[in-house]
């Protein structure tokens, strides 16, 4: 159940500790011993179901361990359902003082910093918070001619009405040849803003458990100032969507730049990447990308403005199971902005 089209979910163990402060260690082998011996642990959470309080950071151990070959590195991204509820999950590299990347040959346990930002959450052993991808060499399309050839050979980008988008209108170089997505604000509900909640969100709950309005408030198209400006408040959390609908071919995945300084002072994505087979439903006319947006300053955004950029990564071989063909996929019917799987859609 943990194996996806191009990633593997990793599951929470029973070791969860509230931290007094974050320190990013390097050149150590035992993460827990480092934090314990430096008096950085406030307390251990002993219940099976553990409440992670909003704004606090926790040291969390995972059930899986790694023994990477000498030519394989690992990279981690929060699961879509976790990113969409504003829970930050950062895997610790104890050898290199880095986050979310483990070097070739890494052998050992997996620990993460976990921080709920908008509301408290409940976790328990077995809950999947993040996912791992294994990378050999450099799978990324980096040269503009390769990107353009790829887009000419694969019909990937469509308008909401199903019209193919001219690839020449997509590539904005920035000297990295990323694909730039723009903001969509045409639906009746253009987005959702996280709100205060007295009750925690239970991440062990089945899909569709919660009423969205318990944790989010809808942002309507009628809320746009002068019918075009959407105001995003500093340090608040928003769920928005791209204008572009995307199809990800079976041999590729798409990774997002979480922060693009060329588009403004905000973070645009937390889940990190899109699996092969995203958007193959609807006659291969694609579906949009959900954006998890946190502005670092008060800002107005408008429809069609650049909002996030992404890079194509080649898989070692075509995925055997495509994302939208999996019975367990929770975002198959995602025609517009969509909250996490924990919320009802009607």
Structure description:
With 346 residues, the protein is mainly beta. 7% of the residues lie in helices and 38% in strands. It contains 4 helices and 24 strands. The strands form 5 sheets. Strands 1, 2, 4, 5, 6, 7, 8, 9 and 11 form a 9-stranded antiparallel beta sheet that branches. Strands 12, 14, 16, 18, 20 and 22 form a 6-stranded antiparallel beta sheet that branches. It has a 4-stranded antiparallel beta sheet with strand order 13-24-19-21, with no helix packed on it. The mean pLDDT is 93.
Considering the chains and any ligands shown, give keywords for the structure.
nine-stranded antiparallel β-sheet; 346 residues; 4 helices; mainly beta; six-stranded antiparallel β-sheet; 24 strands
Listing every helix as H and every strand as E from the N terminus to the C terminus, the arrangement reads EHEEEEHEEEEEEHEEEEEEEEEEHEEE
Termini separation: 27 Å
Helix content: under 10%
Strand content: 35-45%
Q: How large, in whole angstroms, is the Cα Rg?
A: 20 Å
- Give the low-confidence spans: none
Based on secondary structure, the structural category is mainly beta
Q: What can be said about this structure in brief?
A:
The chain is mainly beta and 346 residues long.
Summarize the topology.
Elements lengths: L7 E12 L11 H7 L3 E4 L5 E3 L5 E10 L5 E6 L1 H4 L3 E7 L4 E2 L1 E2 L4 E10 L4 E3 L4 E8 L8 H10 L3 E2 L20 E4 L6 E6 L6 E2 L13 E5 L8 E4 L5 E9 L5 E5 L9 E2 L5 E2 L6 H4 L2 E9 L3 E4 L3 E9 L32
Parallel strand pairs: 10-15
Antiparallel strand pairs: 1-2, 1-4, 1-11, 3-10, 4-9, 5-8, 5-11, 6-7, 6-9, 12-18, 13-24, 14-16, 14-18, 17-23, 18-22, 19-21, 19-24, 20-22
């Amino acid at each position: 159940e943990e194996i996806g089209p191009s990633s593997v979910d990793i599951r929470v163990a029973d070791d969860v500790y509230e931290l007094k402060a974050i320190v990013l260690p390097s050149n150590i082998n035992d993460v827990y011993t480092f934090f314990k011996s430096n008096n950085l642990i406030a307390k251990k959470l002993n219940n099976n179901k553990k409440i992670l309080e909003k704004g606090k950071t926790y040291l969390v151990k995972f059930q899986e361990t790694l023994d990477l070959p000498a030519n394989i590195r690992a990279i981690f991204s929060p699961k879509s359902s976790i990113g969409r509820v504003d829970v930050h999950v950062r895997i610790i590299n104890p050898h290199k003082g880095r986050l979310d990347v483990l070097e070739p040959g890494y052998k050992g346990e997996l620990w993460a910093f976990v921080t709920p930002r908008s509301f408290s959450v409940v976790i328990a052993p077995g809950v999947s918070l993040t996912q791992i991808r294994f990378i050999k060499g450099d799978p990324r399309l980096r040269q503009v001619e390769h990107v353009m050839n790829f887009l000419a050979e694969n019909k990937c980008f469509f308008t909401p009405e199903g019209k193919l988008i001219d690839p020449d209108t997509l590539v904005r170089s920035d000297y990295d040849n990323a694909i730039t997505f723009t903001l969509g604000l045409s639906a009746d509900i253009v987005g959702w803003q996280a709100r205060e909640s007295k009750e925690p969100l239970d991440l062990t709950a089945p899909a569709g458990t919660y009423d969205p309005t318990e944790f989010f408030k809808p942002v309507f198209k009628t809320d746009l100032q002068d019918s075009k400006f959407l105001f995003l408040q500093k340090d608040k959390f928003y769920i928005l969507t791209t204008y572009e609908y995307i199809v990800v071919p079976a041999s590729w995945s798409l990774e997002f730049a979480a922060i693009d300084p060329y588009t403004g002072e905000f973070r645009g994505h937390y889940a990190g990447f899109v699996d092969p087979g995203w958007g193959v439903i609807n006659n291969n006319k694609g579906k949009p990308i959900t954006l998890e947006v946190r502005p670092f300053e008060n800002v107005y955004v408008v429809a069609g403005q650049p909002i996030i950029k992404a890079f194509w990564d080649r898989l070692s071989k075509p995925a055997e199971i495509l994302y939208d063909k999996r019975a367990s996929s929770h975002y198959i019917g995602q025609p517009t902005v969509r909250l996490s799987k924990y919320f009802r859609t009607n």
